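Example 3.
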Amino acid sequence: MSWLMTFRVALRALARNKMRSFLTTLGIVIGVGAVIAMVAIGDGAKARVEQAFASMGSNMLVILPGSSTAGGAMGGFGSQPTLTWDDLKAIQNEVPSVRYVAPALRATAQVMSEDQNWTTSVTGTNPDYFQIRTWPVERGEPLAASDVDGAVKVAVLGRTVVDKLFGPSADPIGRIVRVRNIPFTVTGVLSPKGQSPMGQDYDDALFVPVTTFAQKIQGGLKNYVAGQILVGATSAGTTDRAQRQIVGLLRDRHHLPSSAEDDFSIRNLSELASAQQEGTRTLTTLLACIAAVSLLVGGIGIMNIMLVSVTERTREIGLRMAVGAKGAHIRLQFLVEALTLALAGGIAGILLGVALASYLASSLGWPVLFRPDIVVLAVGFSGAIGVGFGLYPAHKASQLDPIQALRFE
Amino acid sequence: MGSHPLIALEDVSKIYRMGEVEVHALRGVSLTLEQGEFTAIMGASGSGKSTLMNIVGCLDRPTSGRYLLDGREVSRLSSDELAEVRNRTVGFVFQSFNLLARTSALENVELPLLYGGVPTSERHARAAEALERVGLLDRSHHHPNQMSGGQQQRVAIARALVNRPRLILADEPTGNLDSRTSVEVMALFQELGRSGITVVLVTHEPDVSEYAARILVARDGRILSDRRRTPKLAAAALHEEHAS
């Protein structure tokens, strides 16, 4: 008997009990749909986390100076200036896996345009900072190395600061903002970067050359970096190596004996990002497992119905055997029936899953990523379930004794 | 051909095991049936007539003894080999017709050819031919529930004929039919006998057995009597009835 005939016979048998076939298939539809939706949503969540970390900065290390101790109270990292400008230059020049190094001196200050004022974070830095954070200007010019060298009074503004001081539609290039009453010329506006994963507005910031910041805004501490040092590694893969090399270099430069603790601290954002991704991956796996359980239940439903079908059609099986069907013919016929149910469920399940994921994604505002491999996997898996759970009923049918089967009432 | 009988049973026994109890369904039956012979097997239930028919029809294997079908020893074949023998050599007709529901007459008749691996176009042609032989070509596309009992049984006979068997086994073929339709079916069997097909009829109705040329009576797993005689002609009986 040809495959096509076997398939036609299977379709006819299934069509004989439309409602029952539909309900049986529904188990697989829900199972496959749930797997696809869950994986798509999980991937969307992962992509969102990735996006969030990418907006913080890529391959980024943050070096904080050490802690101070005053009367037994530890001041926390950054309270004691231990990093010098020479350290910064050494990191730049001596660590091969480091590509960018930028100081970040921060102060919260009131800034003023001609008719508005706003309190924001003012950061003194250098052009590398914007490379590390992959943050280009939208308008005007970025900070230049010559601005830093000459301690020029120029400022680059985040989008939010522009809105507050000049209004959303204004072009602030060439205009003056006063930071702690010192006039700076606006040379650039940064492209909007959005929020940090914690909800902090990245665009609510103003950037000036680090030299200008140290001289005009901060004052004192000429030899030390009174803030953080941001480091951009050459690639994501070299971040860890860069971290180790910087630790070695700084300990060496600070003449720390091997028993002493570091007088600085390095935060590796890629580690944080991968931990977050690990978290979402675990969640995705968990959701997919739960969905897979419903797929399993669907498979059991198929097995159940196939067993009922074998019993119901015992006489038909007996007749087929009497006119010359071999055990293999009967087995194949029931297997194809189970497979048809499962695959029909699988295909409908894909449609359901895609629809469900798109709906959830649009209502949660997440990106939804459909992975073709998951679709293939789901179809393959539902097929395997059809065969796996159809095998026993099909085998049972093929083992029937034609005489008994023909007499079956 | 012709040198040996179509069916030769040599000291065939069948023992069923029902738990602890052994049931001797057949106790050393020897029997030959010639080609084209129309034989009725009669007997009460438990006489062993059904077991005999199942063994003759290659649905079952004897516990001991030999069965030669058309000169070939079939008593020790595997169930798949028996399925092939049934497909090529035997046609079955049942009391309850056993047609597939919601399936056209033509497709019901095609069923044995499906398992015989006959290509589609030849399958259709042969099924139509078989339906024509039972006078139902115009009902090819009717489903069983659209046909009378007699018509359904004729479709079943067409199905038994379609693989051009040497042997047709009919198990109480008239059990669900009225007397007139029964005679029609018997006329069909007699015609098949004349065309060289061996017909074996299992029945407990003496009226029906009158149309067979040879009557075997089974009792307690043995053949009690075996007589040959001139059968009543079903076609003539129909004619008479028509005239009166």
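Chain B has one domain: 7-243. The first helix of chain B runs from residue 49 to 56.
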